[in-house]
Amino acid sequence: MMPPYPISCYTRGCKNLAAYKIAALWSDGQTQELKTYGLCCQDCLENWFRHSRRKQHDCRLTVNETLEPPGIYALERGERDQQLRRLEDLEKSLGESAPQELGLRNA
Ligand SMILES: [Zn+2]
Hints:
By secondary structure, this protein is α+β, with helices and mostly antiparallel strands. Helix content is 28%, strand content 23%. The longest helix has 14 residues, at 45-58.
């Protein structure tokens, strides 16, 4: 459960309040939970999201464990994890296309 007070962005030196939560659904086949990678503000979102996606690839899992690619959730104060709204459009716009690929497509 998210604490009912404002949370700061996890980026060192950033003074903004966190507006997003980067998290991935983890399961061992019986229980599942949202594994949090970071909480961040709008400015830092792109970095955190890319960083989390890279980290997910490094994650070692046992046979029964599954871990979905990290997603972006709207951070609402006092909400339970299950109630967090997933922002899939934002994931798509930040996720798949690297800047150089966009450059190529426009050329
Ligand atoms: Zn920030």
